[in-house]
Amino acid sequence: MALVIFAVLSVACVGAVTAMILSQNQARNALFLVLAFSSLGGIFGLLDAPFAAAVQVLVYAGAIMVLFLFAVMMFNLRRPLPPEGKRLRTYLAAALALVLLAELVLAGRRVLAGGAAEAYPSGSAIADLGRLLFTDYLYAFEITSLLIVAALVGALALAGKTGGE
Amino acid sequence: MARYFWLIPLVPGASAFVLLLFGRRFSRRWVAWQASAAVFLSFALTVAALAKISAAGGGAAPLSKVLLSWIVSGAFSASVALTFDGLAAVMAAVVTGVGFLIHVYSAAYMAEDRAYSRYFAFLNLFTFFMLVLVLASDIVLMFVGWEGVGLCSYLLIGFWFDRPAAAAAGLKAFLVNRIGDAAFMVGVLFLLANVGSSSFAAINAAPGSGLLGPGPATLAAILLFVGATGKSAQIPLYVWLPDAMEGPTPVSALIHAATMVTAGVYMVCRLNGLFTASPAASSVVAWVGAVTAVYAATMALVQHDLKRVLAYSTISQIGYMFIGCGVGAYAAGMFHLLTHAFFKSLLFLAAGSVIHALGGEQDMRRMGGLRKRLPVTSFVFLIGALAVSGIPFLSGFFSKDAILTGAYAGGRYALYALGLAAAVLTAFYMFRLVYVAFYGAERTSPAPGAQSHEQPRAMTVPLIVLAVLSAVAGLIGLPALFGERANVIGRFLEGSFAAAAPHPAPSTEIALSLAATASALLGLGLAFLLYRRSPGIPARLAGRFPGIHRLLVRKYYVDEAYDAVIVRPLVRGAEAIYERFDLKVVDGALNGSAAAATRAGRGLNALQSGLVRDYALAFLLGAILFLGFLIL
Amino acid sequence: MIAPAAFFVLAVVLFVLGVIAFFVKKDLLTQFMAVEVMLNAGNLALLALAKASGRPDGQALVLFIITVAAAEAVIGLAIIVLIFRQRKSIRTDDLEDLKG
User: Structure pTM?
Assistant: First the structure.
């Protein structure tokens, strides 16, 4: 059963990203990514990380991509961007990306060759995670809240209308 | 309070620090008070510590404190440690006591100056470094103080740096001192290499324990003494001191008469174990001192500048101190250092008072008759002149007599004769100055800013205090004639010196005192005859012996000789190197590499397309290479 | 029970797709989306490895990364909006002020 779900979700995810590469419409691109990130959330669930899965769907597929959509609407580009003349770079980049793929697979094999350790029990994962966040990672957790405030203020300062404009 | 003796140098140091940073914001009044109070606090601490060790039996029980461990390198270590023994006590008392009086005097003397806070900051800084030099328990820390006072001397000689002569004099003092300091440093390193420890105790004990053979001991002692000739203005490195008179007069009194220039004498006394162990080095010290004493005195005979006469006199008197050290009479040398600090700073400050009153006039030929205009100044100057001339029962008489007695008792008759000759010359040039400047008809021309009344009290009170000290300080060093216990300072310093100076029989001592008195009176009488009774004679003498006169006026052409033999070839060599090496090789290499960089830059320019994707591509390539490196 | 290796392979594929997307696309907004894809691929890899190692620390890390990504997306979009306002264009190749 899990295998089926995994297969469906990964096909949806990879397919959505591929569709995004092929499509020229920005709004559609953003929607494809919503699909990709949502299915990724499901995959997170399969990895016994239910909290990460929920956050992925809420924050990524929900908040961040909606933000992108708003941005797309603001720019309001009616006609799609014309294709570019400089093809050489794209081919070069594709070739390099394939090399990267090979390397990453090799690296992953080496890492995973150590053999899978005992998987953590499914039920206690969230409780464990909470305990971890509020003990070992407490400072990081608090600093993250500062970071978000800073990002908020920064975004306002950057994009907000000022009196001069 | 004596426990806090280690604060003695730190108080003026902290004050200097504050003044350097914030001095410009303080009022002049506050600056003067703070600087003087800091030195006074040091003086109080010195007196307390002195009382403590004096009660504990002279130099037998020094106070010491390790402040921090400074250089630790392998087997060698040097720490910032202070020692307060009899020797340091005498010197520290001079530095803080005379220093305090000069601070007070300066408050009035420099009242008109723009850079008031800078002046007091430097003066405090000097006091700090001088006290570090004095209280250091090892030679490395002493060297720190030694260099520090040199720096302050440079800064204060060139205090009025907008006057070219002052700036040049500061530079000259600094450079000449560098020569001496280089030798000093080689000596220090030589000692460190051979003794393995930098503490004075270890160095003084090294010749006795066989760590240092006679040859190396002589070499080390002579190297250190070369440093002393620089700092204490002895032959051959004395040339900077007369020029140093370009600085403010209180500076001349403090640094170039009372304290810094006597640091060389102090250093020799500090390392008396080393110098005693090497008769050859001691002889060098004594002979350099004796020759300098006479030589500098002859130059003082014909100078017309008030301060320069005193400068040559200082050189000559320091020569005396070195005679004392060289013949083993270290206590006598220190005694003369002490009395000299009193009467020479008195003379300088009185001269400063004259210069101040006359609106900057320094030429004694344009003074005359000052006795009536500046009664206090004239009186104290007379006391100082009598003291430096060695007229009986003033301080200079006893200390000079102690040195001459030491030379005679050691069987060094030639040195004794030179000392006696210098005494005649000293009395002569001092009273030439007194008669020309303070007696006779007024020759002053009304200069702008000149005042006819006596100086403010901040100037006269230090003068009076120093005059009293110059008169009575000799009583702490009465000769053995007055009983074994009469020589207070000698007994006080006993613990600091390895060997006691030889004593002659009482009858010989009386004869020596009489000889010294006679020579002083002879000089005084000659001056009276030539400059008071019949003032035409000097000009006639100069006309009769034009060669000698010119030789003296031009200071034996030593400055010219140094210029021709050392300075010019150096400058020419430097110019040749500049033209051949700097311009061609160094600049060529520099210009060439700059041109290469420009060309390379032009070429690499093409890579900077400004397009985000190109940069990202490079980024990707880098990531791939890095990952590949990790995998392989 | 699916082997962690399968998840890892999926992560790698997503990452490479993100890289390709970044180079294929010509406008800042979509390129930024491609960056987000790469970031998610990284998260997936972290979770896969966390599962393989049996420790929940990887999950905590993923949470932080998502938070940071949110902040980064906000700032990034703000910058893009600013560029669009000034240049009236978000075509990447129009921006070549850094050209040497």
Answer: 0.69
